[in-house]
Amino acid sequence: MMHMTLYWGVQVTLLVDSWRTDSWPSYLLTLLACALSSAFYQYLEDRRLRLKSAAASYAPAPSSTEPSSASPLIPKLHRLRRLNQAKLASTVLFGVNSAIGYLLMLAIMSFNGGVFLSIVAGLTVGYWLFRCDDEEVSAVENPCACA
């Protein structure tokens, strides 16, 4: 039976029927897995934002309204390749990060207090380790793990 209110207990079914805990060691390993997954989410988000920032720096500069003979109308091919590779990598990271975020959300929906606290602690520690000092990477902050 699925819980619909927050409960505290060692017996948890997380994400799939085969991931069940029934003892303290399995419960603590599950909480550790949740915390590490949450911190890894923050790490991937940092990598994605840095890659997106790098892709923006490779983008050709917008031309002025009056074309000049010094700047070509077609950007150099090697710059376009790097831009496309960076965009593709950023897009793949976004997809992977979204999947991890939704899995974390579903884990929280187990309504186990320990799972909830371990995910929030993992997100907090991951933010502190990987994203707290992001001065050169500007992005809209969103505390939701699945955003």
Automatic annotation (TrEMBL):
MF (Gene Ontology): copper ion transmembrane transporter activity
Subcellular location: Membrane
InterPro entries: Cop_transporter
GO cellular component: plasma membrane
Membrane topology of this protein: Multi-pass membrane protein
Main location (coarse class): membrane
UniProt entry keywords in alphabetical sequence: Copper, Copper transport, Ion transport, Membrane, Transmembrane, Transmembrane helix, Transport
Chain ranges passing through the membrane: 24-44, 88-108, 114-130
Pfam families given in the database record: Ctr
Domain of life: Eukaryota
Recorded family membership: Belongs to the copper transporter (Ctr) (TC 1.A.56) family. SLC31A subfamily.
Protein name: Copper transport protein
Natural source organism: Trapa incisa
